[in-house]
Amino acid sequence: MDEVTQRDHVTCDVVIVGAGPAGLAAAIRLKQRAADISVIVVEKGAEPGAHSLSGMVMDPSALDTLVPDWRSDPDRPLTIEVTQDHFAFLTSGRAIPLPEKLFPPLMSNKGCFIGSLGTVVTYLAKKAEDLGVDIYPAIAATELLFDAAGRVTGIVTGDMGVNKDGTHSKNYTPGMELRARHTLLAEGARGSLSKIAIAHFGLDAQSGFQKFGTGLKEVWELPPGRVVPGRIAHTLGWPLDRKTGGGSFVYHGQGNLLTVGFVVHLDYQNPTLSPFDEFQRFKTHPSMRALLDGGRRIAYGARALTEGGWQAVPRLTFPGGALIGCAAGFMNVPRIKGSHNAIASGMQVADAIVADPDAVELTAWRDGWQDSPIGRDLFAVRNVKPLWSRHGLPTGVALGAADMWCHTLFGKSPFGTLRHDKPDWASLRPLAEVTPITYPKPDHVLTFDRLSSVFLSGTTHAENQPCHLKLADPAVPLARNLPLYGEPARLYCPAGVYEIAKLPDGTDSFVINAQNCVHCKTCDIKDPDQNITWTPPEGGGGPIYAGM
Amino acid sequence: MKKILVPIKMVLDANMRPRVKADGTGIDLSGMKLSINPFCEIAVEEAVRLKEKGLAEQVVAISIGPAKAQDSLRQALAMGADSARLIETDGPIEPLAVAKLIRMVVDEEKPELVILGKQAVDDDCNQTGQMLAALLDWPQATFASALRVEGTVVHVTREVDGGHQTLSLPLPAVVTTDLRLNEPRHCSLPNIMKARKKALDVTPVAACGVDTVPRLKVLGVKPPEPRKAGRRVADVSELVGDLRAAGAI
């Protein structure tokens, strides 16, 4: 737009982008340690937790440090401790249990809790507000502010009431500058500002690219008596082929509620693969069909997660700010857990700020994470993901397990530290080189289509706003991705945002149904030409997850 | 006029899919997003516009509900209301009790105009405004799609079958809003920030001395039966035959 918008601004000590476990832990720790520090948290979701999605089995260690008395709190967000931990390899007809004794201790879920990340986030948001943190939900951070010296000095919040064509509606409301000495990016996996900061400051110059997966989740209400609170189960194998990483999770909660979910690693090679449909197909396994029979699906969501681990963590700081949580990439792949590290990272960065409030760059955080519990958690399992990606199932997974055993028994790995081979967007093979996958049609009882699923996510976006999914070159989907790969966006998107539609004259058209977007970021990660950029839509848009 | 009172209700967000509790006693709100009722939001917007036009000096928002309803009141403040009051109650509360509590507030605040949503999208009662007008013995205009204040008269246009009806009411009066009255504004971040500093008074319902005991008993709540899948018929005679077989004609 040509016109210059006069924006309001406010100044605070620390501005945090994202009210998730990392951002809220940072906010809470800052106020615990320095009550007079001013902290503003902005969250694009309609309320804290609305965009939080995790399995989830949570390691409570970091929460124990942040909120020492949470276990005795009547409003505690985690109540169900893991009591039974099952692991199985699936073939199309059978589930072959793997004995617990073979599990590397690094994968143990002892002392962990089954719960919902959204509930934890709601709890932390209340704690933060009680301490005087200002949390502003439904506000998207769309730009970084820089000073003349190139230091980040805050963020700009998104304009509201902009029409599809960029003109201003009657209800146009310009964004605001939030200026701060420290800007913490806590946006989760593939955050839009984090991506800009990483590129601008070359934060991944040493670490190289990040690796990702897409996680899909449903909550089911089952007939009484079938859910065993405290039971968790994971599977590898079917329906994925041996070259494709991923697996399922099934967690038994309270009130006859069962969480069932599936993760597909985004370095899959076959462009006809659809993570959503692999998940739906997984539920048709005889063991799952029996478990879910007579139940009712009540919730759905999807979110990308980081899988690069230790070797993919970028430089964590830049002048004026830092990355925390999954914006930095602290997911532990074999444990399939990251929230504990997200909370720990928020606390560590807060400590770095309190120790040196005027620091231009928070070097204590940048240089200290490797020797912290986060570093130890990720270092021990650093080769699992690269071995899995290179050798597939079962060799890669077995080597990964052996590597974790070596680390446990001898304190070191025979592989040293393996690097990741290539970024996820570069892993697709052309259509001509693969066997196309066909998926069964949904039965709308056990398996579903994308649109009825998105409906359950409560996803909504203000109408008539500009499309928030930006194509660098609008010709790429039809000219290149369609002939070469069959346009994988229509398959990797778990929300049915991308479609190839036939026009009346018989030609193809690439359609973006941006209003369906559940903000998972998979397109930004997996597009083979890196042609799609996910930007935040108007604040308050996206899914409204309840207890996901 | 000096003051407009805007009663608002917090309801399950219109984008959330309601889920009936397993025991069939109501809708499960745990973890769900709750928002200001859309018709109430329109009422706030209309009151704030009157104030911005210089036709009213002060807008007071009031809600009757759980502590969480403060979020809806804060939104009203961010839209431009001057102050807010919450009468806090966790129990079920019916339109008659709400109307009586609002009358109590009217007696204290002495507004010349009360603007409310025509109904809440959770229970669809569409009663509170009418009951309030009766209790106060004020004139009422429901389902307003346009509103104009002229001195001590308010002209309200209502969408009725076959056209528009315009009523002129002497103030003080009660007006309930329909969907087309206005398009509520976005709350800008600076205004949200200012709203957090505005006065929000909380009174427990027990301190009001109003009988709020429910007159109705909920026997059960159940979700609608899922619609049976449709099917294509080959021709009219098959359609007629099927309808006959189903006893529909």
TrEMBL record, chain A:
Which cofactors are required for activity?
A: [4Fe-4S] cluster; FAD
Q: What is its main location?
A: membrane
Catalytic reaction(s) noted: a ubiquinone + reduced [electron-transfer flavoprotein] = a ubiquinol + oxidized [electron-transfer flavoprotein] + H(+)
**Could you tell me the EC number(s) of this protein?**
1.5.5.1
Top-level enzyme category: oxidoreductase
The cross-references to SUPFAM superfamilies, in alphabetical order and at most eight, read: 4Fe-4S ferredoxins, FAD-linked reductases, C-terminal domain, FAD/NAD(P)-binding domain
- PROSITE patterns to which the protein is assigned, alphabetical: 4FE4S_FER_2
Q: Enumerate the UniProt keywords alphabetically.
A: Electron transport, FAD, Flavoprotein, Iron, Iron-sulfur, Membrane, Metal-binding, Oxidoreductase, Transit peptide, Transport, Ubiquinone
**Annotated protein name in UniProt:** Electron transfer flavoprotein-ubiquinone oxidoreductase
